[in-house]
Specification:
Distance between the termini: 90 Å
Number of domains: 2
Number of helices: 4
Radius of gyration: 25 Å
Structural class: mainly beta
Strand content: 35-45%
Number of strands: 37
CATH class of the largest domain: Mainly Beta
CATH superfamily of the largest domain: TolB, C-terminal domain
Helix content: under 10%
Shape: globular
CATH architecture of the largest domain: 6 Propeller
């Protein structure tokens, strides 16, 4: 037999096996398989890319049957991992919206097939937004090489660059934000000699010089007003300190910080004496969905960096009148984290106005390197707060954002290896019940092991981001537009 025919027969055998993986197991065990990513018993939207996976341990073969509630099924097998047909996967999920899929898995080791207990994948009736936008950044502290802000379509594995720092030599891109997941209104920051705040509104793109005589820094940590007429920012004097222990490598601290609101239409900065105080650090603002409150984190000022472990932020709010661009007179403390020797960071209200999700840590305001960081949910109506136990892990849970319908949230987690942040998505129902989170799927399950970049600031987007980078490049070589102070 010629070598060509041998290869042809081998290829045919592989195809037949892949299309008809009816395996007769040598043993059946009543245990869930240990797979990566862990997609056992997760809740997903119908428009999610196939959840390909592999066994955590090395195996000689793997086969899976994915069955719908009406008996329709997909059978697939492979040498190292399970890879579903995108067409068949999409059809199966859409035929089973509001139902559950059963997954039966068998793995081959030492010439024996072991079949595991069946697990479920729940297909939610709640839709999800078009995609995610995030920054990919190497785990460096003082310098950066290649980095960028990227977008990913959730229904596929397609990832595109929105903007990369190679566009402008020596720059850093960060602080991307969208109004209610709509990328037609967008703010992002370019740090460096040719830096500034890039603002996109109504199809127009401009570069803002945001440092004013009354502020301590350029604008950072943006959050859009639902009307699109305002953006809340913080202004921070940010420093880094380094730990000698491996559990906490770096601490990002503010030696001072304030809040401002930028009037998009008038190119003016609005100030409020109650949230620009010397005896408090204020940071991470966010508007309520009705636009009438400004939420933020506030802590008693301490001597930095000596007292950085004594800085604890509470969840606070102040009234805001969008018609006049004015603030209330009283700052309310909604959740006193300092009283329980904890600190709050990243308060993010759900678009339906029912909840505020935040990260709780032992101290400070930058949770990304705090292994104790967990997600919590504050009920706006009752004032009750509870940990999101279904979503939390034994490692860092950090930045999070909501889908436009308040039924999904995405967050950063270091649960895989404690080093790199990865994006996880969870379903949350109308009663605040949270489903098991699932890792953003990739075509090859080994993708994350080979990726030496962290996902930073994952944000939902309801359509593809359209930003003309050549316009941004041109603006970066101009003086930009100075932000004015409202008198």
């Amino acid at each position: 037999m010629s070598k060509y025919i041998q290869l042809l027969l081998l290829g045919l055998a592989i195809v037949l096996f892949s299309c008809n993986p009816e395996i007769k197991p040598d043993a059946v065990i009543d245990e869930l398989p240990e797979i990566f990513p862990d997609y056992c018993n997760v809740t997903v939207p119908a428009s999610i890319a196939p959840l390909n996976f592999r066994m955590k341990e090395d195996v000689d073969g793997i086969a899976a049957t994915l069955k719908g509630a009406n008996g329709d099924e997909i059978q697939v097998s492979g040498k190292t991992h399970v890879e579903f047909s995108a067409k068949k996967w999409t059809k199966l999920l859409n035929d089973n919206i509001g139902k559950e899929l059963s997954v039966t898995l068998a793995a081959k080791t030492n010439d024996k097939w072991i079949e595991y207990a069946t697990f479920k994948i729940y297909v939610s009736t709640d839709p999800i937004d078009h995609g995610l936008a995030y920054r990919l950044i190497a785990p460096g502290y003082e310098v950066w090489s290649k980095m960028g802000i990227y977008q990913r379509e959730l229904a596929s594995y397609d990832q595109d660059a929105i903007i990369e720092n190679t566009l402008i030599t020596g720059s850093c891109v960060n602080c991307h934000s969208f109004r209610l997941t709509d990328p037609d209104d967008m703010s992002l920051h370019i740090r460096g000699k040719k830096g500034g705040t890039v603002l996109k509104t109504n199809g127009d793109v401009k570069l803002l010089n945001t440092k004013t005589p009354k502020t301590i820094s350029n604008f950072v940590y943006p959050f859009w007003h639902p009307s699109g007429d305002y953006i809340a920012y913080s202004v921070n004097n940010i420093r880094q300190v380094f730990h000698e222990t491996k559990d906490k490598r770096v601490e990002v601290i503010d030696s001072e910080s304030d809040l401002i609101v930028y009037d998009v239409n008038k190119n003016e900065t609005l100030y409020c004496d109650q949230i620009m105080t010397k005896d408090h650090f204020e940071t991470f603002p966010s508007f309520s969905p009705d636009g009438k409150k400004l939420y933020f984190c506030a802590a008693n000022a301490k001597q930095m960096p000596m007292q950085y472990k004594d800085v604890r932020y509470n969840l606070c709010s102040i009234d805001f009148d969008p018609a006049t661009g004015t603030f209330g007179d009283v700052v309310d403390t909604l959740f006193n984290a300092a009283a329980i020797e904890k600190s709050i960071t990243f308060p993010r209200p759900s678009p339906d106005g029912k909840y505020i999700m935040f990260t709780l840590v032992d101290y400070g305001n930058f949770s990304i390197w705090h292994p104790e960081a967990d997600l919590y949910l504050y009920d706006v109506a009752s004032g009750e707060t509870q940990p999101l136990e279904a979503a939390n892990s034994n490692d860092t849970e950090s930045y999070h954002s909501w889908s436009s319908n308040s039924r999904w949230f995405v967050f950063s987690s270091r649960r895989i290896n404690g080093l790199y942040t990865r994006p996880y998505i969870s379903h949350i129902d109308e009663n605040g019940k949270v489903g098991k989170p699932f890792l953003l799927p990739q075509k090859n399950p080994d993708y994350y092991e080979n990726l030496l970049f962290s996902y930073n600031i994952p944000e939902f987007i309801n359509q593809k981001v359209d930003l003309d980078v050549r316009t941004v490049e041109h603006l970066a070589n101009t003086k930009g537009t100075n932000v004015e102070q409202r008198e």
